[in-house]
Design brief:
Number of strands: 9
Order of helices and strands: EHEHEHEHHEHEHHEEEHHHHH
Largest sheet: 9 strands, mixed
Structural class: alpha/beta
Bound molecules: iron/sulfur cluster, FE2/S2 (inorganic) cluster
Helix content: 25-40%
Strand content: 5-15%
Amino acid sequence: MAQSSEKLPRPLGLLAELTHRCPLACPYCSNPLQLDKRGDELDTATWARVFGEAARLGVIQVHLSGGEPAARRDLVEIMAAAHQAGLYTNLITSAVGLRPETFSALVDAGLDHVQISIQDSDAHSADHIAGYEGAFERKRALAAAVVARKVPLTVNAVMHRANIDHVSDMVELALSLGASRVEIAHVQYYGWALPNRAMLMPTREQVDLAVAAVEELRTRHHGAIVIDAVVPDYYARFPKPCVGGWGRRSLNITPSGKVLPCHAAESLPDLEFWSVRDRSLADIWISSPAFQAFRGTSWMQEPCASCPRREQDFGGCRCQAFALTGDARATDPVCHLSPHHAMVAELAAVRTEAAYIYRR
Ligand code: SF4
Ligand code: FES
């Protein structure tokens, strides 16, 4: 499975999970169920070294994420180090806990872009989903500050059964906030979303209406806002090329320094993750067992192994394949060619109105 470094693709994006701490408690959080502790987080100097290594490896863009990155007192220093390394810096924030003076200092230090998650178009519902009263108003306030400083703003709207009927209102809200882009992202069922799947799963009818609404919104708001949206996994015929293909385009670093090919990779069994505490990022990208495990196509089983789409979707999502079949090498069951595909429709039909299991 090992490949020479000449043949290896170079990563373009780095997701830097600065901390798992977060004031919100979204039931679809992509963080692992076992959260990294504050005392295990990488220090400022290590992040600065890693950003330099990332830039030399070919990374163009760093997403400063979490948890809530503003929970780090050294967020401005970390962001400045990424900027000085020549990386385009995107702050992914819940807006809660990011004080106005910290935001201002981030912009002064070179912050390029802000992405704010919005849980719903209605304050009461949004705060209920986030598990934090008053979160919605703080998001509005930060969005106004971002636009006032002329920093490009993306609104990230994660859709599920409780808010998918409001997709038009979410796009209108993003427009009114001054966002240049809105990402209509559907819940991915790993991390905290897996135990909440039956509480979050939309109906087929809801999904069809939302897909049609997005098409109409794209036409209506062409030139005013970019609308990114994909069909949710459980209602698709083919899977998405998760993370652009394993070990091809991006890498994630956890708060404690482990380097992962995707944010849910720790849910897979028997993978060995290397840490930036012990190795350079280039060494990890090229040689770590976790990155080599599903890189390319030689690990595939049928039907992926001989499928003409194998270099397009790379067999879908390894974490979803494992979560649903117990085999990380299996074809993602979202694919209608998977022998396990019927299971996806069965699971999509399981819905309950039980209370969310909030991330804590
Ligand atoms: Fe993609 Fe595998 Fe399905 Fe082919 S069989 S479309 S490669 S997931
Ligand atoms: Fe891990 Fe898709 S989330 S491969």
